[in-house]
Design brief:
It is a single chain. By secondary structure, this protein is mainly α. The protein has two domains: 145 residues, no CATH class; 139 residues, Orthogonal Bundle (hpI Integrase, Chain A). The chain is built from 16 helices and three strands. Strands 1-2-3 form a three-stranded antiparallel sheet, with no helix packed on it. A hairpin with a 5-residue loop joins strand 2 and strand 3. The chain is globular. This is Tyrosine-type recombinase/integrase. It comes from Deinococcus terrestris. InterPro entries: DNA_brk_join_enz, Integrase-like_cat_sf, Integrase_catalytic, Integrase_recombinase_N, Integrase_SAM-like_N, Tyrosine_recombinase_XerCD. Keywords: DNA integration, DNA recombination, DNA-binding.
């Protein structure tokens, strides 16, 4: 058993080059998934582009991917420190043909899930190279085909559902839904709002990568938030985990007769992006509102009418 799993990532990164290499080699040689997770987290928090400001959600996703890849490698005869040049492609193929085990889902893993697992495996090999354990890059030529169906089609924004569901929410749940559907906040951002973040009709949001933005709130959202008392002594307005919040909102959707349209909180964020784009016709302004680094990302959040330019081309 390796000692890697007992050490925090920062402690691992503080080891000498030789000691770190020994720990990484030991974990890889014994297919110690948890040890390799710790090595990867040490790399991500001290040597990656975002460093310690990296998203906790991304780190958790990478850890999940490593816990999947390492057992597969052991069962498939892959030597982690000396993988074959085709082993990365073999893992991608395995993921693409693997049955989905998601609740209520059928078919194979989604393209997004495959891409997430491969990203985690690639991060593992960047970490092993950083630790001096190997120079192997088995995923360098591994291609992950994109999903041909746009995300806005697979998971479109809520439209009429928002107003219908609000009538079946208690005050706190309604405020949370409005932060996502009118304020465009990610659910993690909305659950993290404190009373001190509100002021002047704006909410200060601490988003991905530690980025801070100030988001204007609709009148309905301001009114909903003004009626809330803090849920915790530190001023937090919500004391729910994601699962607890999702459970409550899913029930509200059912009570409103929209249980079949429940698609999680992200569709509410797309609701705000779509409404703002229809009002401004400006992807840049919508992207700033949603906190996107790239307008290309914003385009995936906006449902554009199929014949959006029909009037403009009429007299061509």
């Amino acid at each position: 058993m390796t000692l890697v799993r007992q050490e925090a990532p920062l402690a691992l990164a503080s080891l000498s080059d030789q000691a770190l290499r020994v720990r990484a080699v030991e974990a890889a040689s014994t297919y110690d998934a948890e040890g390799l997770v710790q090595v990867t987290l040490a790399y991500m928090t001290t040597a990656s582009r975002k460093g310690a400001r990296g998203s906790a959600k991304t780190l958790a996703a990478y850890a999940l991917a490593i816990r999947d890849f390492v057992p597969w490698a052991r069962e498939s005869g892959v030597q982690l420190l000396r993988p074959g040049r085709r082993d990365g492609g073999r893992y991608v193929a395995n993921l693409q043909t693997r049955p989905s085990r998601g609740r209520g889902r059928t078919g194979t893993l989604s393209s997004a899930t495959v891409a997430q697992y491969v990203a985690g495996a690639r991060a593992l090999y960047r970490a092993l190279r950083w630790a001096g354990a190997t120079e192997a890059q088995p995923f360098e030529d591994a291609h992950v085909p994109p999903d041909p169906t746009p995300g806005i089609v697979k998971n479109p924004p809520y439209l009429r559902e928002i107003d219908a569901v609000l009538g079946h929410c208690d005050a706190r749940l309604a405020a949370l839904l409005l932060l996502c559907a009118h304020g465009g906040l990610r659910i993690g951002e909305a659950l993290g709002v404190h009373t001190e973040d509100l002021g002047g009709g704006l909410v200060t949001v601490r988003g991905k990568g530690g980025k801070v933005r100030r988001v204007p709130l609709s009148q309905r959202t301001r009114t909903a938030l003004a009626g809330l008392s803090p849920a915790r002594p530190d001023g937090a307005l919500f004391d729910w985990t994601y699962a607890q919040a999702a459970y409550r909102l899913r029930l509200a959707f059912r009570r409103a007769g929209h249980g079949h349209t429940w698609r999680g909180f992200h569709a509410a964020r797309k609701h705000s992006g779509t409404r703002l784009y229809r009002a401004t016709r400006d992807f840049t302004r919508v992207g700033l509102f949603l906190g996107h680094s790239s307008v290309d990302t914003t385009r995936r959040y906006v449902a554009v009418d199929e014949h959006d330019v029909a009037h403009e081309v009429e007299d061509f």
